[in-house]
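Methods — Computational structure assignment.
A single polypeptide chain was analysed. Its primary sequence is given first, followed by the predicted tertiary structure written as structure tokens.
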Amino acid sequence: MARFHHHLFVCENVRPPESPRGCCAAKGGGDVRARFKEELERQGLKGLVRANSAGCLDQCAHGVTVVVYPEQTWYGGVTVADVPEIVAALREGKAVERLRIPDAKLTGKAGAVDGGATR
């Protein structure tokens, strides 16, 4: 079996309604992932690109979050309507800049975790 060329991780984390951070599930994360699955199949990419459900990606302030690997492209505020544009950009080796979360706004820490290299 061949490897997938890309993985799309879609946050579907669930938090209680009173949580100040909110959650991607309440913002439509499940619908976004379902739409990715439909669009990937429609465009003949099933088996090449995988839309995965993810728990918290720690980008709650950005709305429904999607990260594309191996590119490490982070998208925020993704809606069902954005999915075809993201898939088309992925097919072309590009990113949808209007949805991209700039590295400086990501909440992860910079540092070495892979033998000294940083990304």
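Note: The helical segments are 29-42, 83-91.
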